[in-house]
Write a structure and sequence with these properties.
eight-stranded mixed sheet, three-stranded parallel sheet, 450 residues, 9% strand, alpha/beta
Length: 450
């Protein structure tokens, strides 16, 4: 990479946006710098599944010809998008063979918001008149249908941690986190069901935010667990996360769970606060102690010390039902997945088995050939807990435990403003280290599931 490209990709999203607006940089220069970085890091990291570099450059030139638009807060900024979000005219695979060549005809709500804001989205090609100003380069790798904690479950191979290629980036939004950490883009959209934004952000050393459920429309997100899925930003700074969230948040009548509430001024709130005076930080007793790496504990304690130095007070709280969160999650989420993934049957779209003997053979072979081991495992588990005779014993009980966990958080947050704890009990583990032990892999989400 040239020194100029290196300097550009080292900027934060907010910095490159401001320099683009002042015409100190052109959209073509910024896009070319990101493409140079992608060339330098791919396929060693394998963060991207789809790269539309030449098209992106052409669209960046068109942006420059039109000039910066003050109404577009992300004008000319290159971004990547997790491959669970639909992108019109560009394939959306969800990291699965069953959708390996699926090309949707519409954008997800969050993707359309980025395009309307003038972003250069790394992964998409088509523009219509209303959205002119957006450029798309590529889509990021992920655990198949967002089922995993390491981005090793992708049908297209694992993503590697850009800080140490022998280790995982976390999952399931590991491709998005790795893309941001490697400097391939200035921000990315991921999805989080049980920790899939927060955990890879932690393992890759960037900022990850799972917004409140309903804050960002799920329209165009290929569903895993509909009552849990959420779209959110991965960035290098908190300011950048606030900027991205302000763009993608908002009501969408096409999503029945979308909150019809005003979008807060996240950037303004950051600018107004100079310290943490008056902020009460709750530290759950259950988030300390056994099972946490000393290195992780030291990082958390260091963060608390820094917060106290900025004026925050520390409050001890309890979340007594935390130990049951993994069991509850791995009943509720697979149950929803077994229903959501029933649509992938080889009939309407996606992979279709060749020369089936009959309809049943078409269903069985299309799904067996299209889904990976982890997806099949969760479908089977979800179907079992929803079956006659087991629904009350498992699914209903898990839903009741879910309510107790929610009540724990309500009580804790009545005593404090925020909660502090690790996103992962360990630092990034080695590739292949946990793939043979699914239960141990599930434990990596112990602090984010609840």
């Amino acid at each position: 990479m040239s020194d100029t490209s290196t300097a550009i990709v080292s900027l934060s999203l907010a910095e490159v946006r401001d320099r683009l607006a002042r015409r100190e940089l052109t959209a073509e220069q910024v896009t070319a710098a990101c493409l140079d970085r992608i060339t330098a890091t791919e396929p060693a990291i394998a963060a991207l599944l789809t790269n539309r570099g030449e098209v992106a450059l052409a669209e960046a030139r068109a942006l420059d010809a039109a000039g910066p638009d003050p109404a577009k807060p992300l004008w000319g900024v290159p971004l990547t998008v997790k491959d669970a979000l639909t992108t019109a005219g560009t394939r959306t695979t969800c990291g699965s063979r069953i959708l390996g060549e699926f090309t949707p005809h519409y954008d997800a709500f969050a993707v359309a918001r980025l395009r309307e804001a003038g972003a250069v989205i790394l992964g998409k090609t088509n523009m219509d008149e209303r959205e002119a100003g957006a450029v798309i380069l590529g889509k990021t790798n992920m655990d198949e249908f967002a089922m995993g904690s390491s981005t090793e479950n992708s049908a297209f191979g694992p993503t590697r941690n850009p800080w140490n290629a022998a280790r995982v980036p976390g999952g399931s939004s590991g491709g998005s986190a790795a893309s941001v950490a490697a400097g391939q883009c200035f921000g990315s959209l991921g999805t989080d069901t049980g920790g899939s934004i927060r955990q890879p952000a932690s393992l890759c050393g960037c900022v990850g935010l799972k917004p409140t459920y309903g804050r960002v429309s799920r329209f165009g997100l290929v569903a895993y667990g509909s009552s849990l899925d959420q779209i959110g930003p991965l960035t290098r700074t908190v300011e950048d996360a606030a900027l991205l969230l302000s763009v993608i948040a908002g009501h969408d009548p096409r999503d029945a769970t979308s909150a019809d509430l005003p979008v807060d001024d996240y950037l303004g709130a950051l600018a107004a606060r100079k310290d943490l005076s008056g902020v009460r930080i709750g530290v759950p007793r259950e988030f300390r102690g056994e099972g946490i790496d000393p290195e992780v504990s030291a990082a958390c304690e260091g963060a608390l010390d820094a917060a106290k130095a900025l004026g925050a007070s520390i409050v001890d709280v309890e979340l007594p039902h935390t130990p049951y969160s993994i069991a509850a999650y791995y009943i509720i989420a697979p149950a929803e997945a077994s229903s959501n993934l029933a649509r992938f049957d080889g009939v309407r779209y996606g992979r279709r088995a060749e020369s089936p003997r009959d309809l049943a053979d078409l269903y069985v072979r299309s799904r067996a050939e299209g889904f990976g081991d982890e997806v099949q495992r969760r479908i089977m588990l979800g179907t079992y807990v929803l079956s006659s005779g087991y629904y009350d014993a498992y699914y209903r009980k898990a839903a009741q435990v879910r309510r107790l966990i929610r009540e724990d958080y309500g009580k804790a947050l009545a005593r404090c403003d925020v909660l502090c704890g690790p996103a992962s009990p360990v630092t990034a583990w080695g590739l292949g280290e946990l793939t043979s032990d699914p239960l141990k892999m599930y434990m990596m989400d112990v602090f984010t599931l609840s």
